[in-house]
Amino acid sequence: MRYNKALITILVALALSGIVSCAKPPSAELEAASASLSKAETDADTRLYAPDSLARVRDIVKRMQAEVDAKRYPAAKALALEVVSASEEAMREGAAGKAKAKTEASTALDAAKTALLEARTAFDAAIKLRRLDLDVPLADRAIEDAASSIISAESDFAASGFRESLTKAKASRAALATVQQRIADAIRAASAKK
Q: Scanning 44, 59, 120, 167, which has its CA 20 to 30 A from the CA of 194?
């Protein structure tokens, strides 16, 4: 009886190992993982606004492939499902990043346009004053350079180049703040000379 039990246990173990070694790769899951990765990699928003998440997906794919190569198909299947989920999350993150960048760029553009209007108004008032200690051509050129930069930022924004638009809008606003400070200082000095 003991002999039969031992023999049956060995035969069952051999049969199970034969089933495991003959198991097939989870083709459907691997194909879905590949398609998900491809979709995430070709999505411009994901590449631009969620590069770390995309790198994480690629890492999971590498681990999945190692499991396939080692014929550990249950682990490969689990990782394939994780690839699909992580790819979808990366694309959601990319879309959210784009929306956030768009909002930030829009806000910065509005602030830069307001600063431009204020700088032009201050400049027009300043050049009417006598004894103005201000390099008028330099201030005028700085204001016009900022205006050109804002126009370029608007073009970037229209082309969905939100990061570039944000950078230019912030730089324009900072340049205009410097010019406005010079103008304000010159107006104060001219007013004190009266």
A: 120
